[in-house]
Amino acid sequence: MTTMVATDPTDVVTTTISITEAAQRALVRAELLSIRPWDALEREQIAQTLAWVDDSGGAPLCRIAKQAGDAAPASGVLLRAR
């Protein structure tokens, strides 16, 4: 089970949601399928991304540890796996 933490740097609220890897992949897949491609290139990129989500070679969909030298973005929403 993966714990996803969504942190909005403009707010003091942090939401933690625990979901399985399969559910996490299903959510990402559904989001990708909701995108209407503008052209053939975007259609190809969405197809490639879906293939990656479906078959990541056993690797987790999200990082499970912070990489060396990684810094949080200055703004926006940060999603990380714990």
Order of helices and strands: EEHHE
Strand content: 15-25%
Strand count: 3
Shape: globular
Helix-residue proportion: 25-40%
Main sheet attributes: strand count, strand direction, barrel closure: 3 strands, antiparallel
What value does the Rg take, in angstroms? 15 Å
Q: Overall pLDDT, averaged?
A: 76
Strand line-up in the sheet with most strands: 2-1-3
Structural class: alpha+beta
Please work out how many helical segments DSSP would assign.
2
| Stretches with pLDDT under 50, minimum 5 residues | none
Report how far apart the termini are.
10 Å
Produce a short descriptive summary.
This protein has 82 residues and is α+β, with helices and mostly antiparallel strands. It contains 2 helices and 3 strands; from the N terminus they run E-E-H-H-E.
Tell me what you see in this structure:
With 82 residues, this protein is of the alpha+beta class. The chain has a domain at 21-57. The chain has helices at residues 21-33, 40-54, and strands spanning 2-7, 14-19, 78-81. The protein has a 3-stranded antiparallel sheet. A hairpin with a 6-residue loop joins strand 1 and strand 2. The chain is globular. The chain starts with a strand and ends with a strand.
